[in-house]
Amino acid sequence: MKTFNKLFLFGLAILFAWGCEKEEERAILSTGAAPVVTLSSKSVVLNKDNATKEALTISWAADYGFSAAATNTILIDKKGGNFSKASAITAGSDLKKTFTTAELNGILLGLGLAPGTPADIDIKITATMGASTVLSSTVSSLTATPYLDKLDLSSTWGVVGSATTNGWDGPDMPFYKTEVPNVFVAYVTLKDGEIKIRENNNWAVNYGGTNGVLKKDGDNIAVKAGTYKITFNPVALTYKVEKYSWGIVGSAYNNWGATPDAPLNYDPSVDLWTGIVTLIDGEFKIRKDNDWGVNYGGSNGVLKEGGDNIAVKKGTYLITVDFKKMKYTITKYAPWGIVGDATATGWGEKPDQKFSYDLSTETWYLNNVVLKDGQIKFRLNDDWGVNYGSTGSTEPDPIAASGGLLANGKNFGVKAGTWNFVLDLKDPAKPTYKATKVK
Question: Mean pLDDT throughout 356-377?
Fold first, then answer.
């Protein structure tokens, strides 16, 4: 009987201690364990030019009263959105998260915020412990202004002049809309000469000027050879021409800057900077404005500011750089060309007239090539090892507006005139072409 009483009292003691422990835990969790959030700024205005820079740091602290392994999540939502459709960023056990400009901008656009317009957003932290305990911080507010993550191609404005590739007759080098109303931007490579700004590729509405001030039908704007970012406001009648370029530098190209960097060009259709560059065995980096102030290296296709040199073997490459996703690609480049007695270069006596590659459609194109009555084929890298001709049974086979291509096929027959060609070689089993006689 004494043994039974001792066991009974021992059991009661365990239950009492367990109950006290649970009460103590519940008391601690309900009176101050929730995370306390701190924002590095209460207002941010994001700018595409600072895509890789730090924009906002969210940090938090919590005192659970005991050692707790919490999984933290950052929730970001539009003001008053109640977090039902919030962007959720898992932070694990970390107590801080720093967002780059591009990273935060993507979140804001994903919430439906309008580019160029300040908007209030709500931020809170949830800490999850175990299967059922979730603690939430109070809501913190931030005013944020996102930018367009890709330039809008619908602008009617362009740059024309002797300094441009197409001269005073155009077509003009396009301006693109930005997130700021009535502010347009063009990324252009110019030679020594003059420019003006005009609308719809004609002279009905055109602007010139000096010292950043525009005037309708004003004076031509003199420029020196280089790569520029031109900013233009048709309402305020202002403009700005500033050096702006990205290029390849290194032992693989120019002995780390002994000569100008290999230029990359902006392609708004895919929001990438691209270039076709012939390199030697060595290393390279990507830098801005031929200067080491801003430079990127990396490995395995991932860019890092000030990162490691990128090793490369001798060859010609298509290099693409995505500053939004901080990625790069290096692809062996072998251009397609047009060959034949209908061309100015004959059947290989001179290098073929080369196609250009369109990243947005993954096709090859050659515009405004002048041909005479004769025959043509398409071949890779000035060599007969890989070439395409007609699928027809006769030679020459009169070229149609479009059709299939056959490796080592028959010659196409063409009539004299100016032609545009597109090669679609994405599916090696079904290569196709389009041919348009312009005049």
Answer: 92
